[in-house]
Design goal:
This protein is of the alpha/beta class. The chain folds into 2 domains: 2-203, Rossmann fold; 208-370, Aminopeptidase, CATH 3.40.630.30. The chain contains 14 helices and 12 strands. The strands form 2 sheets. The chain has a 7-stranded mixed beta sheet, with helices on both faces. A hairpin with a 5-residue loop joins strand 7 and strand 8 (269-279). The longest helix is centred in the N-terminal third of the chain and has 20 residues, at 33-52.
Length: 371
């Protein structure tokens, strides 16, 4: 059985775990973000393995950190596009079993004054984000109230002084911790509970919008559509609209049948892809661009999913050169990461002078997102 102990900074999560949990896994330290993300997935995987073996394992903090993104968005710390990206990324991880909903959640918030008192009394930790986390408290609570609507017995408000009693553990493991319906129910509840209309920017409409995207083969008549897309991103990619090399790459891809376009519900071009599949089992993404107004709506994933279904035959490797960490377009890195690509070697800077890095995906089987 998996138990999560959660609450705002200084709520006493680690203290309760040390006192009452015989088997518990701590939160990560102040590590680089990539290491933190890997650790959270590893922590959840360890917990599910231990639970399958009959153990009761306690997690100090919830590895499923979408609640933090929710709070940041509701506070205005991030924008809607970032929230949508985080929802899409979390959904893919969730249904893959990298995250899930714990069987029992203990949530405590003793109030702002008590949290501040505890922070000042604890000289062993700096809690540099304490002020922000304090502002996030109402939205953290809102998240777990939405979790409780799935099964009120599985969310306990407060840290029990007696530890994990038999009565608390009697709820037992969930039938499924990573069922897509759990994810959709949770976000729908959050959206409706926040006074928004169903299908608003909770991110749930990403999948619906992706189904509304139609991916088609590009023809020679579509050349100008690629130039329109290219014009939107020349600041990031470098010159393309008047570049003979880019013109040749598009023409060659179209002639070889490896160029795709994404069409919106009105038939307008919303994205394009040049994909190399003639050196199997080595494949590469040569160019992928989505119209600015349609980013974070599943267009890029729809294009890649169609390419994978058509051309990628496992086992194989798909590579792409995308922006470096400090590039203004670094958000593209997160897109590839949430599809399972891993950062590899640094490569030569792009024509605009920005950094580049290669990402690779080892394909043992067709990914869930491409089926």
């Amino acid at each position: 059985m998996i138990v999560v102990v959660e609450g705002p900074s200084a709520a006493g999560k680690s203290t309760w775990c040390r006192r009452h949990a015989s088997h518990w896994l701590p939160e990560p330290g102040p590590w680089p973000m990539e290491e933190i993300l890997r650790y959270q997935v590893d922590r959840w995987r360890q917990a599910t393995t231990a639970s399958a073996e009959g153990d009761v394992i306690v997690l100090d903090g919830d590895p499923f950190k979408l609640y933090y993104n929710w709070a940041a968005w509701r506070l205005g710390e991030t924008d809607e596009a970032d929230w949508r990206e985080q929802v899409e990324f979390a959904y893919l991880r969730f249904v893959a079993g990298d995250y899930g909903l714990a069987d029992l959640i203990l949530y405590s918030d003793p109030g702002e004054d008590e949290l501040l008192r505890r922070k000042e009394a604890d000289t062993t930790r700096t809690r540099r984000n304490f002020a922000l986390h304090t502002r996030m408290r109402p939205h953290f609570r809102q998240w777990y109230e939405a979790v409780a609507t799935l099964d009120p017995r599985r969310v306990v408000w407060g840290f029990p002084n007696e530890g994990l009693s038999g009565e608390l553990l009697s709820v037992g493991p969930r039938t499924s911790r990573s069922d897509p319906q759990l994810f959709h129910h949770l976000l729908t509840t959050l959206t409706n509970g926040d006074g928004q209309q169903s299908g608003h920017s909770s991110g749930l409409n990403l999948g619906v919008q992706q189904r509304d995207i139609r991916v088609v083969d590009a023809t020679a008549a579509d050349f100008d559509s690629f130039l329109v897309l290219a014009a939107e991103v020349e600041d990031w990619f470098g010159p393309m609209v008047d570049d003979g090399g880019f013109h040749k790459a598009v023409a060659n891809s179209v002639a070889r049948g490896s160029a795709l376009l994404a069409l919106g519900d009105a038939g307008d071009v919303v994205g394009g892809l040049l994909f190399s599949h003639h050196d199997a089992p080595k494949y590469s993404i040569g160019w992928l661009v989505v119209r600015g107004s349609m980013r974070s709506r599943g267009v890029g994933q729809a294009l890649l999913a169609e390419a994978f279904r058509r051309w990628v035959r496992p086992p194989g490797e798909v590579s792409v050169v995308t922006f470096g960490n400090e590039h203004p377009g670094a958000r593209s890195r997160r897109f590839y990461e949430r599809l399972g690509f891993q950062p590899a070697e640094i490569v030569e800077d792009g024509p605009e002078g920005g950094s580049r890095q290669r990402f690779r995906l080892q394909v043992a089987a067709l990914p869930d997102w491409a089926r």
